[in-house]
Amino acid sequence: MALMITDECINCDVCEPECPNDAISPGEEIYIIDPGLCTECVGHFDEPQCQQVCPVDCIPLDPERPETKEQLLKKYHLITAA
């Protein structure tokens, strides 16, 4: 699954630089994650780095975007091949 940022986000700016796929960017009110670029850090790290640094724990899995580890790895290969 891609990750998402909930409205508990405090705009602390620690997640954005941690994303190896540049999937996180400032939104109108809170940071947002581009699900087309989010691989949950599969291919880069063992765990999602944004979740590791978030001080308010507001980055859960997006239940509307289920993806298997294999799908995330395929997306990682597509993103990094460019």
Automatic annotation (TrEMBL):
The keyword RNA-binding does not apply. Keywords: 4Fe-4S, Iron, Iron-sulfur, Metal-binding. Residues 1-29, 31-64 form the 4Fe-4S ferredoxin-type domain. Gene3D superfamilies: 3.30.70.20. The keyword Oxidoreductase does not apply. InterPro entries: 4Fe4S_Fe-S-bd, 4Fe4S_Fe_S_CS, PSI_iron-sulfur_center, YfhL-like. This is YfhL family 4Fe-4S dicluster ferredoxin. It comes from Vreelandella malpeensis. The lineage of its organism: Bacteria, Pseudomonadati, Pseudomonadota, Gammaproteobacteria, Oceanospirillales.
